[in-house]
Amino acid sequence: MKLTEALEILRNRARDAPRFAVTLACGFTPLHLQTFLRAHLQTRLPARSVEISVGLYGDITGTVENLTLTSGDAAAIVVEWADLDARLGYRHSGGWGPSELMDIVMSAERAVERLAQGIRRAPDSLPIAVSLPTLPMAPVFYASMHEASSAEMKLQEAVIAAGHGLSALPNVAILSGQLLGEQSPPGSRYDLKSDLLSGLPYTIAHASAMGNGLAELIVPGAPKKGLITDLDDTLWNGIVGDAGVENITWDLASHSQVHGLYQQLLRALAEQGVLIAAASKNDPELVDQAFARTDILLPRDRVFPMEAHWHAKSVSVGRILRTWNIGADSVVFVDDNAMELAEVGEAHPGIECVRFPKSDDAAAAGFLRDLRQAFAKRQVNEEDGLRRESIRSASELHRAVEDGQSAPDAFLAEMKARMKVDFEPSASDARVLELINKTNQFNLNGIRYGETDWRNALARDCAFAASVAYEDRFGPLGKIAVMAGYRNDASLRITTWVMSCRAFARRIEHQCVRLLFERFGVEEIEFDFAATPRNGPVQEFLAAITAGKPPFLLRRDTFEDNLPRLFHEVTIETPRSFGAAPTCG
């Protein structure tokens, strides 16, 4: 991003939008860094007005320690060597002789520990992005520049150890030095003239790269949910129908290591909860035989569905999307054939089509890294591990009903469904926020929350929240729904309600409403519904149970008169004395 572009973004922001307040802690004059950070955050948060406050010049530690008092939405902490000891920078003349070196090291170690303690004391609900030193140290070492001296290594060790400890905190993210090195080469980061004249040590290019990286840590992009792969000349080298099952390869000896690395990556993605499917114009029996090979790195049970036949790839992709019940914009399609990519992309707008680098080893490293980045997430939770099997079981459920094996009531009665409802979910539960911020179809209004926003919503008078976990004879789904709102006299107002698409067709939504009436003893429920491009399922449900149109208001007697039979065994994890919001006038 150029500086003029950043300024244009900030000029065009919606000034009356809700504020997104960020504290920027650094020891230098931020100038362009502040501008770029605001602009990069603003592009990620178009419905907010990003504001950045900075601490006192030269007092990064004081700014960090004051985070305990902040009511803001996030913080960015930018540490440079001069913040740890002024003699490691160029704006002070405190001595670079051998006699001062040990004192510099000890002083920096103390400063690192004080900064780390300040960060640990910050509210655990505050997202914090931390950048460790990115600029070269001043020439304080008497050893050759080619040699990493003991003193230099000791300084590096103190910083890395602190970063390692902080990275374990759930609200702290450390900026990657490796990626920053590619985007902003070390030799082009420092501007001595700017540092001496204005107190900003960064070149404009480095300030832009830093702003982008910190913004990504504070407001990370939504990860993709599924990957659909071709097989021949993609998952393996060769065409299985021509070469034979025994002659397709994916190893170093056969000069097809990239295919093996791709299999390895898909297996890793599957283990972190990414949905993996295959769409191949192929003989299904040969495909089964290929996956039966003992040396394949991607087990067959990690791939669902498997679409191997001779129909168009776009048809296969459409069936996979319907089975997964997710939008095309949440999926990556990988194929070695440009024509197949174009055909799928035209049939399914929004899907990300990526060409496999079959004959371009130079592009392979970037291909693998970009795929990993597309599915990146900070934490892998229990629900991630359940996703593939829950979709497989849901597919079996729908197929059984469609095949007429039993009527819906009879089928649901045999499912042994169990729901666990917690009316006191932790405000720091990552799965709760993940559901709210990533669910699209059964989403009451599309409103997203940051950690601070969510805590503030739960802290308001008369507020309540509930999370729902589910399992049946097909297996556990984990936490699949979140409801939140507040009570007002004899009514309940629902401001947030999301449910995973994996939980559809089980009447869980009916049970949720029944539990709200029972828990709070109200006579009517108001739903803060707002149409989004993809929340048709929740609108259809509300229209059905209220027999009306937006705004949706549901009376208890109307609901009970039209309630279908429910078969869930319900466990309330929170005692009734907790979670029942007080009556508010």
List the helices and strands and how they pair.
Blueprint: H1 3-11, E1 19-26, H2 32-44, E2 49-54, H3 60-65, E3 74-78, H4 81-84, H5 98-121, E4 128-131, H6 150-167, E5 172-174, H7 177-183, H8 192-198, H9 204-218, E6 226-229, H10 240-243, H11 257-271, E7 275-281, H12 284-291, E8 306-309, H13 313-324, E9 331-335, H14 338-347, E10 352-355, H15 361-374, H16 382-402, H17 408-413, E11 418-422, H18 430-438, E12 442-443, H19 451-459, E13 463-472, E14 475-488, E15 491-499, H20 508-520, E16 524-527, H21 536-546, E17 552-555, H22 556-562, E18 569-572
Parallel strand pairs: 1-2, 1-3, 3-4, 4-5, 6-7, 6-9, 7-8, 9-10, 11-18, 15-16
Antiparallel strand pairs: 11-13, 12-15, 13-14, 14-15, 16-17
Helix pairs in contact: 1-2, 2-9, 5-6, 11-15, 13-14
Question: Under CATH, the topology of the largest domain is which?
Answer: Rossmann fold
Largest pleated sheet? 8 strands, mixed
What's the number of helices? 22
Number of domains: 3
Number of strands: 18
Structure description:
The mean pLDDT is 92. The chain is α/β, with parallel strands linked by helices and 585 residues long. Strands 11, 12, 13, 14, 15, 16, 17 and 18 form an 8-stranded mixed sheet that branches. It folds into 3 domains: 3-218, Rossmann fold, CATH 3.40.50.1110; 226-374, Rossmann fold, CATH 3.40.50; 403-572, Gcn5-related N-acetyltransferase (GNAT) (Aminopeptidase, 3-Layer(aba) Sandwich), CATH 3.40.630. The chain contains 22 helices and 18 strands. The chain is globular and about 85 Å long. 37% of the residues are buried. Strand 14 and strand 15 form a beta hairpin. InterPro entries: FkbH_domain, HAD-like_sf, HAD_sf, HAD_SF_ppase_IIIC.
